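Q: Glycosyltransferase, please. Structure only.
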Amino acid sequence: MVNPLVTVLLPVYNCERYVRRAVKSILHQSYSNMEIIATDDGSTDRSRDVLRQCAKEDSRIRVIERENRGLIATLNEGLGLARTDLIARMDSDDIAYPSRIAKQVAAFQNNPRLALSGCYYDLIFSSDRVAPIRNVPFSDPEDLRILSLFFCVQKHPTVMFRKSSIPADVLHYDADYPHAEDFDLFGRIAAVADTAIIPEPLLAYREHAGSVSNRHADLQARTHLRIVARNLLAEGVPVDVSALHGSLPPDPVQAGLMGRLIKDLEHEALNRHNGKEAFRFGVANLFIFIFAMLRQRGSPTALATYLDVTGGWEKIRRFDRIAAKAGRSNESMAWMSFWLVDAMLAMQSRGNSTPARKAVSGWQQLL
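A: Structure for Glycosyltransferase:
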């Protein structure tokens, strides 16, 4: 079929401020043959009213209203309701660029083996500025599979699935992996089918204080590390993953064990014959993930222990290095230094951003 029907799954929970823009960004796509399944997951604000009004304005929108059941249940229900082979994801506070759906459909038409496609994305600052971010520098399906052992390669709201290319027992979100259900699912898909990333920003992603990564950071970190441990065992990587199952935040002993795991994985990367660079990149990502977790919620002593064992002092930013070293003798000084580093980086990121009306085609139509 030249222009197959595409279903866009849009879960909504208490997002009245942004959801209309998100919906309009889908409706204004250059590709028009689609339906939107917008599920209001028991919102307590005016999100439901906004969706009803959107549905009155465009018959391609189907609104589902019910009590709160959570994101995983909402997504699985959406997968079951979708009548199409191609199913795209969208978050209720993000903006899809006008060519997103068309370019993802083309990716599937050009590769009959493709099961999942994501894309590069930009980051939204406040409500009117966007900035490019560093995306994954790999495109080969086997490299993406290897990367998926360590982290969620695709940003969740950028993906599109081809249902017929994914085994039925694979295409579901697993409630055993809360707040990292995308990491789990995309890795399972990459293990059995081709995945791809379109190397072009086709979406603007909004991260704010209400984001899952901020509200449920501890549970998300535990789930993430549990998935990594499972993946490494399934891959047959000869390392001890027990440190990834410990309590969070890690104490200095566990931080040291995590550091030892990183060193073992770096050694394993050197011995691999296939996907060596992707494996090395994945290990580097895990190093940074654990570093960030310790930096934000661990003790300065545990952080310093981790950096000692990994030899990672030179792998982190200079200002982070100064703050972490200060924590050996003065924890309060370390926390203050990290706070200042974060404030400085936030200012720097905003300085690198561009007004959305200049960077994004059709932005004014979404207001």
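A: Brief note, in case it's useful. The first strand starts at residue 6 and ends at 12.
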